[in-house]
Each structure stands twice: as C-alpha cells, then as structure tokens.
Design brief:
The complex is a heterodimer.
Chain A lengths: L3 E4 L2 E5 L4 E7 L4 E9 L5 E8 L4 E4 L2 E6 L4 E6 L8 E9 L7 E3 L3 E6 L1
Parallel strand pairs in A: 2-11
Antiparallel strand pairs in A: 1-3, 3-8, 4-5, 4-9, 6-7, 7-8, 9-10, 9-11
Chain B lengths: L4 E3 L2 E4 L5 E6 L6 E7 L6 E7 L2 E5 L6 E5 L5 E5 L8 E8 L11 E2 L3 E5 L1
Parallel strand pairs in B: 2-11
Antiparallel strand pairs in B: 1-3, 3-8, 4-5, 4-9, 5-6, 7-8, 9-10, 9-11
The chains are: A mainly beta, B mainly beta.
Chain lengths: 114, 116
Amino acid sequence: KQEVTQIPAALSVPEGENLVLNCSFTDSAIYNLQWFRQDPGKGLTSLLLIQSSQREQTSGRLNASLDKSSGRSTLYIAASQPGDSATYLCAVRRASGSARQLTFGSGTQLTVLP
Amino acid sequence: ETGVTQSPTHLIKTRGQQVTLRCSSQSGHNTVSWYQQALGQGPQFIFQYYREEENGRGNFPPRFSGLQFPNYSSELNVNALELDDSALYLCASSSPGPNANTGELFFGEGSRLTVL
C-alpha cells in the first residue's frame, strides 16, 4: 500500500526566503507525481506535474524534483512572498491500473511572514 | 475552457440522512474522480468514473455511490450519513485528449458537508 509523507507539517518563513518542501513515498512504482496548492477551505490548484521518467519540472518561482528510486520529491520555492501562504500537497499516481487514483500526503502548511 | 464546478458549496445534514453532491467536469474531460478530505488531512480517493462506469474504487463502504452522465457530469451519493462523513468532498477531472498520458488531474472547489 502506497504511503506518502510530507515533512515538515508546518513551516513559517520571512518573506524573500528560498525554501524546500519535502515529500516521500513508499512504493517507487509510480506513474507520476503532482504538487498542489490549497488555500483554506478551498479546492486544489495544480502546480507541477512530474512524469515518472522526468527528474524535474519548473514553473516560475517553483521547481519540483523527483528521485523515484529513493521515493522522494522536493518542491523548491524561490523568493517566497506572503501570497505563497497556503497548504502544499504532493500526490502520487500508481503505475498500474486504469484508475487515475492519487495517493496524497497530509500537506505542509506554509506561512510567509511580511 | 470552463473549469471543474461543484455544487452545493456547503450543506448541513443530520445523521442517517442522504446527500447528493454534483460535479461538472472541465470541458472535454471524460474521466471524473471523487475524493474525501477530512480536516487537516490529505484527500482520500473514493472512486472514479469513465464513460459512465465506475472503474476504480478506494476503501469506502457501498453507501458511497456515484453516477456519471453522458455529458460527463457526475454525482456522489452518500446514504445513512455518519458523523465521520463530515468533510470536504472534491471532484477531479482529467483529459482523454493528446495529453491523456500526462494524467494531470484538475480539481473543483469542493462541497463542504457537515453531519450533525
């Protein structure tokens, strides 16, 4: 059974800092990994999607890496801003089966202080 | 291109009642999945529908059921509501087109269910 862990559970940083969020998963047989952002009481916004054959993806100030063999992914946020404050979730899709089922971590709650 | 829309946004029910939640998938997406997110937790997969048939299910009892319609919209039905069913219910859709193999899921804003 796939398990996804995100560390730390909460993080508070001053504006302008670069930061790294961590995600680990127990079964390396994944199809892809997706990072999401969730604002309080809201739905999920897709940030980055990394296919199992890829090592990293970049979008603006965000960079996500994937090391499938070690079961790890990181989300790097450069020059953090108060507007980045949210919960960040990572999710993996298994390699087998037709269902596009995602297994999520519990998230990292990020607060960027002005 | 319209995104994933869900209704209602909030609702309150009492234990034992039944509830129906609705989802309109993103334009052109024929695969819809539902997730339950308890407070402070990551979403948990309930089931997925493709071409009006359930083709994947998570660890949820049969009182959680669903439908998908020819226009790809979907419903989640929960019978005999329990207090632990209080959660945010999220619908996600994905594309069958040229980028189908990317498997990217797009989520709606969710329906917040409170069971008293």
